[in-house]
Amino acid sequence: MTDLVELAKRRGFFFQSSEAYGGVSGFYTYGPQGASLKERVEETWRERFALAEGHMQIDAPTVMPEPVFEASGHLDGFDDMLVECAECGESHRADHLIEGATDIEEAESLPTDEVASLLDAHDIDCPSCGAPLAGQPVDEFNLMFETNIGPGTSQTGYLRPETAQGIFVEFPRLKEYARGQLPFGVTQVGKSYRNEISPRNALVRTREFTQAELELFVDPDGDEPDVSSVADVEVTLYPAENQPEGDYVETTVGEAVAEGVVDPWVAYYLGVATEWYETIGVDFERFRYRQHQPGERAHYATDCWDAEADVSAPDEAPEWIEIAGYAYRGDYDLSKHGEHGTENFTVFTQYDEPKTVERASVDPDMSYLGPEFGGAAAEIADALAALAERDRAAFEGDEVTVDVDGESYTVPTEKTGFEFAEETEAGRHVTPHVVEPSIGIDRTVYTVLAHAHEEDEVDEGERTVLRLDPSVAPTDVAVFPLMDKDGMGERAHEIATTLRGEGLDVTYDDSGNIGRRYRRQDEVGTPFCVTVDYESVDEEPETVTLRERDSTDQVRVPSADLASVLADLRAGETTFDDL
Ligand code: GAP
């Protein structure tokens, strides 16, 4: 990590923000190379998860009013465990300290008092100053950044901790755009904010980061995914029950569904995601899908599989990081916003044929209930209505008994107005369930860099190389004049301009010897370099040298063919060996 972070800073991938003012933990700026790499990763994500799947895209605000997060459960449940050092005042994630000092892998699923006891039992010291943390309280710390909306303090808002809420709150409108047809998906790529207790490991745990999320709304009783298009995709699964033994399951998406290992909707997106990870150059030897343990799941999820990547350097102990979560959120979000919001968060789904249903109803005689039960009469009427829907047999006798606030009330059946009738229904109101692939773009970028990062030996000696896939490499091609004289500089500029006109991202470099220029491009992952030399300007038809980053091989290519040769190489339609 140290080497990669040093390279990232030196070559303009990413670096800590606001360093002129001392910097602040958890905020990173992407430099010219990193911004381009990140944008390309996002673009490939959009192509695969939004365009290829036919899903909508939206762009919602990052500040949302407090009631949204009361409804979503983030105000109450979006906490991490905080322990403060009495000596130096530094804050730490208590669960991470436990994981570092014991064999416990997911300490965040433990209750806070147990984590406090473990700090004592293992004599854990403050990582900053070494003072003992035993006896220090462990508190729940809410991760949302609070702000005031407008002058004064009249309206509290929060920076969104996940882009998902921007999709859920707009569901009443989005379902109209989908013409009320389930299933439909809505995607969003944007910033999320979490006031992490201890940001760490560069892009891995920051306070401001980019998420790419898809919320797929499905009918829990009607919709089934067609997994056939990804059935043969190979996946490495690490189910919750296998984790104590450390056993992976090497399988395909189709088999995982057939054997009931993964929910079909979640499995479908593991297949889609695997195809996407392959295009951006994730190394599957250092990758797995790990199912959450029940105590580890977020407050909204009924099941979740994390994509995890090992980002350790070769020959070091594995260092697994979570780069995405593929969750089944059930109806949690839309039900909560339906309860708290003022709009309708259900979808009316039409039956193929109208259905005749038996419906039980009550019409209580309030002139009897009022005098008999006083202030409880209205609630007794509601309880009778609920009972009629639930258990019509309860109305077969002379009397019916209902419970209201722990008290039992008995009502003569003839006073309930109980009726039983047949009705024809065209459809029903459904609260859709949500399937959510939630990708952390920054951690994905970090993984792509870590998996591409290599030190190797070439003719000129040792080099550092980023073997980035051409689809995400920040620069498509670098153009050099061998020397900036005898017309080579002018010609190289013209070639660079032509290639830019073809839509390629081109770097021009004429400083230093040619070997150093190749090294610089290898370090930022530029897949191809073009050199204009004496032969280029002296001979007809004009040719240039084309060099491949990974093999360092070089061939002469006619300048007139350069753009199409590069297009074929980038698309994988030609290999360098073919040339
Ligand atoms: N909407 C679901 C959700 O937000 P999550 O597992 O909390 O789920 C999804 O976050 C992804 O966002 C993670 O897998 C991770 O890649 C990224 N992420 C979360 N917190 C982050 C942080 N502090 N810094 C960088 N990335 C983060």
UniProtKB/TrEMBL annotation:
PANTHER family per the UniProt record, alphabetical: GLYCINE--TRNA LIGASE, GLYCYL-TRNA SYNTHETASE/DNA POLYMERASE SUBUNIT GAMMA-2
Highest taxon in the source lineage: Archaea
Keywords for this protein: Aminoacyl-tRNA synthetase, ATP-binding, Ligase, Nucleotide-binding, Protein biosynthesis
Any one cellular-component term (Gene Ontology): cytoplasm
MF terms in GO: ATP binding; glycine-tRNA ligase activity
GO biological process, one term: glycyl-tRNA aminoacylation
Enzyme class, UniProt record, top EC level: ligase
EC number: 6.1.1.14
Keyword field contains Protein biosynthesis: yes
Chief location bin: cytoplasm
Compartment(s) where it occurs, according to its Swiss-Prot or TrEMBL record: Cytoplasm
Name of the molecule in the record: glycine--tRNA ligase
Protein family (similarity comment): Belongs to the class-II aminoacyl-tRNA synthetase family.
